[in-house]
Amino acid sequence: MDLINRLSHLPGWVVFAVVLMCVTVSSYADDLARPLKVVEVSPGNYVHFGEFPPRTEKNMGDNSNIGFIVGDRCVAVFDTGGSPSVGKRLGATIASVTDLPICYVVLSHVHPDHIFGATSFISSQTKYLGHPNLPKQIIRRKNYYEEHLSEDLGAEEASQGIIDPSHINIVDHDMTLDLGGRTLEVRSWRASHTDHDLTAFDTLTETMWTGDLFFCEHIPVLDSNVKSFSVTIGELMNLRPRAFVPGHGRCKEGWDLGLQKQKKYLSVLERDAREAIKNNVSLMDAVNTVGWSERSKWANFDLFHRRNVTTAYTELEWED
Amino acid sequence: MLRLLILSLNGKTEYMIVANFLGKSLFTLYVGAILISLSSHAKSANFDSPDHAAVPEWQIIKDLMFGDRPILEGRGKIVSMFLNTKLDDASTVPVMINGDGDQTRDSYIKTLYVVIDKNPIPTAGIFHFSPESGRVKLETRLRFEKYSFVRAIAEMNDGSLFMDQQWVQVQGGCSAPSGRDAADDPLLGKMRFRFDDAFAINEPNLVQVQIRHPNESALAVDLDPNHEAQFLNSLDVQYNGESVISAEVNFSISDNPVFKFYFFPRSEGELTVRAKDTHDSVFSESIQLVKDHSN
């Protein structure tokens, strides 16, 4: 009552501000404690399917598929989401499933939608794992990524910055993690989606966590090398896991057909780009023609395809 | 409403009232929320092309480069620029700048300035042409750090200035490194020549030169703090010993720089490209052109 009396003496705009602030703050605080929606795709393998980019204040960077694998001894996290908030919510989700500690955080690559939740898991018990090129890529992209995270989600979300490379334990080729009762095989790949892709395979349930080596529904994104990405997809096709988690989207069509669809996209991109270069079609025109026959098959085509053409074209124009 | 709040929140009294009620951490969060909404306002405002003449950076650049010399509208008359203004890769934005008339001894574009208002070094390139080049065309690829105008300013042999400009909505091209790791590239300094048509004497021939070089921006941070950015700073093209183009450039040009332009051969001969970078490495390559040459 006393509070209301005091409020009544304040100018109207202050009261409005306070009310607005309470609404803003409470929903924000609730979000951090609220577990993410997860699906147990195979026993002990929990996946949260993120929304598609772009990152907005509404999705708070929840733009990739992330999750965790629960052993008898401890838990491994695979990717952390696109903001500290999403990372914290993933932590809350794990706590709602098990009391076991988190012993590993596997970082599939440097892109913001996968890595910005990583700082939420720092503890003396937790080891971060990354490809040998990951620390260098974190340093090179740090300023740019942090500035744009701040622009999109606010200074608060960006205040912890990207995970410091000193936390990263390097996976030279592959590494076996013992979670108790199951092992996780972590593997570093050749330049594919990026030049530092890492995957994880749960041997007990034969569940493959591909990171962005595998896109479902959402257009594949190319930030490295179109030719060796295709080689990698060919190798993935031979693996035939019993369950899998793609980096984005859900694969109704399954492992084989899903990968075939992605391989087709990359091969059309490569073929058309090579043809454009041969016919002296400039890059300016090529971004609007190369690979556009694939448009109807993918979400976010208009957002990422031209960049993919640029990456493929500027790689292939140096071919012999 | 928001603007009023911020103006008032800057005053100490109001700050105390709010802080007393809700504690400092909440206050911080709320300021964060205001900043968020402000930044999204700023972004949506940016989607409309602003008045190009009123850009503060441009007014400074213009004063420094051209003093009070008048700069006339050039599009469709002297110099026209073409590019995709949206949704491209900010580190690789292809641009085409065309001279609208022929180069003659009496009237020719002597120098072409490419300016990106909001880049760390706004002058992306200064290209000098000769009356012998037949026709002026420059195609290259640019990095954009922020939403910005890009300008092509042609200085004629009589000193008059003409400009065309475009508003470009991409960002991060200078500070975002490319996905490729250019360190120890075995092809560093290698060049490639491409010709659209068969070599022809006494008419303008279009050639594209590709130079393998990371053309690193000074903004992409590296592991080694002593590492100095390595980018091309000069380019010199000659045909049979006579200048076709000479240019001063920097990291506003994308990695593995590409330049496409005309040269005007009066006989068979040799096209030579020489480039130098900020580490004083010199790269040079030549190609022999004979009449039945086709690529």
Could you walk me through the main structural features you see in this protein, from its secondary elements to its overall organization?
The complex is a heterodimer of chains A (320) and B (295). Chain A is built from 10 helices and 12 strands. Chain A has helices at residues 2-8, 12-33, 84-97, 112-115, 134-153, 155-158, 226-237, 254-278, 283-286, 301-316, and strands at 39-42, 45-48, 66-70, 75-78, 102-106, 127-130, 168-170, 174-178, 183-188, 198-202, 207-215, 243-248. A 7-stranded mixed β-sheet of chain A has the order 1-2-3-4-5-6-7, with no helix packed on it. Chain A has a 5-stranded mixed β-sheet with strand order 8-9-10-11-12, covered by helices on one side. In chain A, strand 1 (39-42) and strand 2 (45-48) form a beta hairpin. In chain A, helix 7 (226-237) runs antiparallel to helix 8 (254-278) and helix 8 packs across helix 10. By secondary structure, chain B is an alpha+beta fold. Chain B is 18% helix and 37% strand. Chain B is built from 4 helices and 15 strands. Chain B has helices at 2-9, 12-22, 24-46, 56-66, and strands at residues 71-73, 79-83, 93-102, 109-116, 123-129, 135-142, 148-156, 161-168, 191-195, 205-211, 232-239, 242-249, 258-263, 269-277, 282-289. Chains A and B meet through helix 2, helix 5 and helix 10 of A and helix 1, helix 2, helix 3 and strand 3 of B.
